[in-house]
Amino acid sequence: MSIISKKLVIAKFGGTSVADYPSMLNCARIVLSNPFTRLVVVSASSGVTNLLVELTQAHVNDERRVQLLKNIAQIQYSIIDNLPQSQHLLALIDSLLNHMSVLSESLILNRSKEVMDELLSIGEQCSSILFNEVLKQQGEYSQVFDARKVMRTNDQFGAAEPDINDIFRLCQSELLPSLNNTRFVTQGFIGANEQGRTTTLGRGGSDYSAALLAEALNATTLEIWTDVAGIYTTDPRLAANAKPIKEISFSEAAEMATFGAKILHPATILPAVRKNIEVFVGSSKQPESSGTWIRTQVNNAPVYRAVAVRRDQTLLNLHSLKMLHAQGFLAETFASLARHKISVDLITTSEVNVALTLDKTGSDSSGQQLLNDALIQELEHHCNVKIEDSLALVAIIGNNIPNTTGVCQQVFDSLSEFNIRMSSQGASQHNMCILVAEKDAAAVVQTLHRDLFEGLS
Ligand SMILES: Nc1ncnc2c1ncn2[C@@H]1O[C@H](COP(=O)(O)OP(=O)(O)O)[C@@H](O)[C@H]1O
Ligand SMILES: N[C@@H](CC(=O)OP(=O)(O)O)C(=O)O
After folding, report:
1. Which atom of ligand 1 is nearest to the CA of 281?
2. Which ligand is nearest to the CA of 259?
3. Per-residue pLDDT tens for 377-414?
4. Where are any strands of DSSP class E within 80-145?
5. CA 83 to chain CA mean position, Å
6. What class is the 8-227 domain?
7. ipTM more than 0.95?
8. What gap in Å lies between CA 331 and CA 130, rounded to an integer?
9. CATH superfamily of 306-452
10. Do 8-227 and 306-452 agree at the fold level?
């Protein structure tokens, strides 16, 4: 019986896990310790995508451009320094770095989104080659697999949408048959359109890539290896007393990701749900610490599971007297937002006002602003528009929230010292959201965490 017909594990290593040679070595040990791990998905080494994004930006002058190219090259060479001397490897990386330089130069004349994606893909291309070399150094006969052969997307450069049917078909024909004999290392975050042009799935998209591949290969388990030992009750960088969660449901994890828990890309859970693939989140630095399992069914479903925060939120306040006892105002507003590919997050309404926050989930890899002048002008045709920014969305995530007496009182009591600009609950069983000033975000999360989680066990 073939190994992959028994069990197939897809392991994704994030940027912090493949930041440098020692980190890559930890990851290699994790891969090699499990014979069922046949496909490894890597992000660019930590910091590289940020440097590449800066390289795509119009304001970057020549001096800074050269510095950025150098910094990116330095990260790759510091890993190569630890690998056996190989002209072939050097030539591969150098050719990618040269390509990066040519692309960055061409952006000066033509700010093409297609070229930007090609440039952004260099980070993952380099890290996959280097991580494969680390595996080979450990005695594994592994190979690099170009994700663009299977990760078919549409043409929306910067925030491309995957074509699930094509990805399934391509994975089944191009990748699955070889997994039995060879371990492959592939790139997260990048894909290609029908014409083979490189696309990217949006910032943080490697988790999503790994989940799509797990779905298309009918994997048993998806492992997300990162720099913390699983999903915590809140970002451990924000609250020192945050605790790792042993087991969490798909619905709760999806809410956490959607509402800013950076540990998972918001789209990661959907493919796993579609194929009921269990997801493990663990630390590549401490693989022995227990980590978090994300499953359909979990043993306990507490009212309070976690607190997440999404910063840099924009609130649109739309005012129109036409709204009074009228129909169609919201339809018109949502149609304008849809034309600009913006989805709405929170919404509250009154007689003549609608307040809404914008969902940045599908944001462009190039870091462009969601709200543009064209959209605002369009909205101003039918209402007055007021924009507030410097806000943060804090989400309390758990179970049965709208049907549990006392949740609102507990949350509002806990936050009595803060101004709550907007609140929303009732639509989902799994969350209650509040909008607060960005400057208060950390204190709000810490206060909620202290009052809802600490002291409980
Ligand atoms: N609830 C949470 N549990 C764990 N980590 C969280 C949570 N919310 C936010 N994070 C942050 O997510 C980070 C991991 O995500 P990221 O930096 O994207 O990792 P990677 O480089 O592996 O993709 C952690 O270092 C942590 O600060
Ligand atoms: N390298 C890409 C994709 C990604 O998912 O990275 P990470 O796994 O480090 O969040 C980014 O920085 O957006």
Report:
1. 4
2. 1
3. 888 888 899 999 899 999 999 999 999 999 999 999 99
4. 142-145
5. 30
6. alpha beta
7. yes
8. 50
9. VC0802-like (3.30.2130.10)
10. no
